[in-house]
Amino acid sequence: xxxxxxxxxxxxxxxxxxxxxxxxxxxxxxxxxxxxxxxxxxxxxxxxxxxxxxxxxxxxxxxxxxxxxxxxxxxxxxxxxxxxxxxxxxxxxxxxxxxxxxxxxxxxxxxxxxxxxxxx
Length: 120
What we know:
By secondary structure, the protein is mainly β. It has no helices and eleven strands.
């Protein structure tokens, strides 16, 4: 089970830190990803991290502003979001899969999502 938290309303230029808590003892066996879905748009890739945390990848739209990290001892993955823009407004989902990818079909488990709203 994956449970996201940390979403909310923030002004443009502000920051938020999303967290995703995973239950179970096999968290370190999964690569983790963050995706987002804005109203009337398809779900899109945001960031991914390998099982060990040694490698990360980002969508071009968030590169340099967002940072994904994980703590395998605490079964959590985080998404630090800085310099937020109104176009970052979306429901953000964390996902667990066999390997890190920008393709949503790779991920087997999904959280319920947390709303992020960036006002201009």
